[in-house]
Each structure stands twice: as C-alpha cells, then as structure tokens.
C-alpha cells in the first residue's frame, strides 16, 4: 500500500514537472526577448548626405513681390556624419549632423551661404517603417543682400540689417528608398533684432537627397 502510494505520488510530481517545462517552452516562443538597441555604425565617409533643390524667395516681401525679377532659388547642401555616436537612442537623437549649404537667387536678389547643424527625427518609426521624418536646422548665414538703412533700400530688396544672420529651417521628408528622399522645406533668416533693421527672409521650397 505504501509503495503504491509512493509510485502514484512520484508519477504526479513527474507529470507536473513535465507540464511546467512544456508551458515554459511555449511561453518562450510566444514572448521572445526584445532585441536590444544597437547604436548606428559610423559611416566610412565623412559625408553623410548631399541634397539639391529649389525655393521661392520670400513671397510676402519686396524680394518676392517686386515685378520684373525672378523669385526662384537654386540651393544645395552637404550633411556630414555625426561627430559622436551615442549608445543611448534618446541622446543619439540630440546629436546633429554638421551642415554646409548655399542658395543662389536667379533674379539677382539676396543669395547666401550657411553653416550649422541638422537634427533628424523619424516620425512613428514602427508604424511608418522609418520612412517619414522631421528635421530642424540652426546656424548662421552670410549673404550679399542689402544691409544699409531702410530709407536707402534698393528696389526689390529686403532690408536685412547686417551680415551674417541667424538661419533656422525645418523640413518634412519621405524616404523613397534607404538612399533617396524628398523634403518640403521652409527657412528663415534674420538678425534677431541685433541690428538696426530686421526684415529678414523666409523662403519655401523642396529638396531631394541622397544618403551614403
């Protein structure tokens, strides 16, 4: 009687252990361990991306409304690789890409060159597959526009006050492929009230980019 009870108890314990092992294995299949974040690898080239595009010269100002002049701009920029790659995805987003670029006005109005940093953030990366992104730029720009007193502003020019100016820009972009992307852009330049006159420039346009 005692040995029969012992055998029965042993069978029950063995069955419970086997069921626990099967359940643990099943749970392991259903809930895999999430992949850890891996910091992006630094590219071999110092150049991260090149862009070309166009814009309309400040539609609400003298440079955009004066008849007899072209308001079209041709622009391009080079974005360098991030100088630092962070192991933390949160801090990685705060590291900008050094950027240098320029814009040439085909109507002889204000043209300029700029230098600064570009921050890029993917919008809803898991839902949109890292295709849609938002960008911001901050830096400085040197220009060939008018910087004298407002009373002497030439026809078709804005009174910019001084040079260089602060430049801020934003873009909403879409990655067609991992290499090619298109962007709608807006940019603004001004002296932030540090010079006598501060009409500034606000241009709207678009770019196409190639990432290395």
TrEMBL record:
InterPro entries: Lipid-A_deacylase-rel. Pfam families: PagL. Residues 1-24 form the signal peptide. Gene3D superfamilies: 2.40.160.20. Keywords: Signal. This is Lipid A 3-O-deacylase (PagL).
């Amino acid at each position: 009687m005692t040995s029969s009870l012992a055998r029965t108890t042993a069978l029950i314990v063995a069955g419970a252990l086997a069921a626990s092992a099967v359940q643990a294995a099943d749970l392991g299949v259903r809930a895999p361990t999430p992949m850890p974040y891996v910091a992006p690898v630094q590219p071999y080239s110092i150049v991260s991306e090149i862009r070309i595009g166009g814009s309309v010269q400040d539609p609400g100002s003298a440079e955009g409304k004066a008849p007899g002049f072209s308001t079209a701009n041709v622009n391009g920029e080079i974005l360098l690789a991030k100088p630092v790659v962070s192991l933390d995805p949160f801090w990685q987003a705060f590291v900008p890409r050094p950027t240098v670029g320029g814009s040439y006005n085909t109507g002889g109005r204000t043209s300029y060159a700029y230098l600064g940093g570009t921050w890029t953030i993917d919008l809803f990366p898991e839902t949109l597959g890292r295709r849609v992104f938002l960008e911001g730029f901050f830096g400085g720009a040197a220009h060939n526009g008018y910087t004298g007193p407002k009373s002497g502003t030439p026809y078709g020019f804005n009174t910019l006050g001084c040079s260089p100016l602060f430049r801020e820009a934003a873009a909403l972009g879409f990655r067609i492929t991992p290499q090619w992307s298109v962007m709608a852009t807006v940019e603004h330049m001004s002296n932030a009230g540090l010079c006598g006159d501060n009409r500034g420039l606000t241009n709207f346009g678009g770019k196409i980019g190639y990432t290395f």
